[in-house]
Amino acid sequence: MPYWNRSGGADHVFVASHDFGACFHPMEDVAIADGIPEFLKRSILLQTFGVQGTHVCQEVDHVVIPPHVPPEVTFELPEPEKAQRDIFAFFRGKMEVHPKNISGRFYSKKVRTELLQNYGRNRKFYLKRKRYGNYRSEMARSLFCLCPLGWAPWSPRLVESVLLGCIPVIIADNIRLPFPSVLQWSDISLQVAEKDVASLEMVLDHVVATNLTVIQKNLWDPVKRKALVFNRPMQEGDATWQVLRELEILLDRSQRRYAGPWRS
C-alpha cells in the first residue's frame, strides 16, 4: 500500500455515515469506549456525526456532512410554499415507552418517550410510531417536523424537513450541523433543549404568532435546499460541492503538516 504508507493515511478520505462517525458504533458509550481505530487517526473523515465541544469520536480531521437524502425529494412533491399545511407538528419514528425496554429508558435520552407522553393525545401533534413508506407526504403537509435525537443527535429527517419546507425542530443538545458558513441554521430551523420538551407546544405557538413566515421564506430559498443535496453529477453549490470546498481546506492543512506529495 505505497500511497497509504507514504503518509500513514494522512492524504486519504473516508466516509463514516454511522451514528457516531469514526467510532463505528451506534451506542455512544460503546463508541466512546472503543474510540477511533488507530489506522484512521491521521486520515480525514466525512461524517454525519457532529457535536459542539470535544468528543472522542471527533478526535480526527473531519467534515460534518448532511445525511444522504435522494435528490428526487426536492421535486417529487408540490413546491413547499404551495403545499397545504394541515398538520401542526409531525413525527414518525421509534418512541419506546415500556418500562422494561432498555430503548424506552435510554434511547433518545428519553426525549422521544417524553414527546409521546406529553403530546400523544394532543390533536395538534401528529405522532406515529409505525413505519409508513409515504411518510414524506406527511412531512409535506406539516408546519413543524420534530427532529429529536436517537442514538446519535442527527437523522435524515432533518434534511428531508428542509427539502419539503417543513420547519425542522431540532431536539438534540449540542448538535453540530453541516456547512454553517452557507446554512445559517438559526434562520431555517428551531432548536429546543432536551429538558424543555414539556414546553414544546408553547414554543411552537410563539413561533406561529411571531416569525413563522420569515422562517418559511428562508426554507424556500433554493440555494439553502441545494446545499443539502448530493446530486449526480455534482452541481455547483450542492452538498458534494460544499464537501469538496471543506476538504480543500483540510487537505491543504494536512499537506503542510505532513509535507508529502499528493495524488488525485
From TrEMBL:
A single Gene Ontology CC term: Golgi membrane
A Gene Ontology molecular function term of the record: glycosyltransferase activity
Pfam families linked: Exostosin_GT47
Domain of life: Eukaryota
Occurrences of domain Exostosin GT47 (ranges): 2-205
Entries under InterPro entries matching the protein: Exostosin (IPR004263), Exostosin_GT47 (IPR040911)
Membrane-spanning intervals of the chain: none
Keywords, alphabetical: Glycosyltransferase, Golgi apparatus, Signal-anchor, Transferase, Transmembrane
Record's keyword annotation contains Transferase: yes
Location in the cell: Golgi apparatus membrane
UniProt membrane topology term: Single-pass type II membrane protein
Principal cellular location given in the protein's record: Golgi
GO biological process: glucuronoxylan biosynthetic process
PANTHER family named among the record's database cross-references: EXOSTOSIN HEPARAN SULFATE GLYCOSYLTRANSFERASE -RELATED, GLUCURONOXYLAN GLUCURONOSYLTRANSFERASE IRX7-RELATED
Family: Belongs to the glycosyltransferase 47 family.
Protein name: Exostosin GT47 domain-containing protein
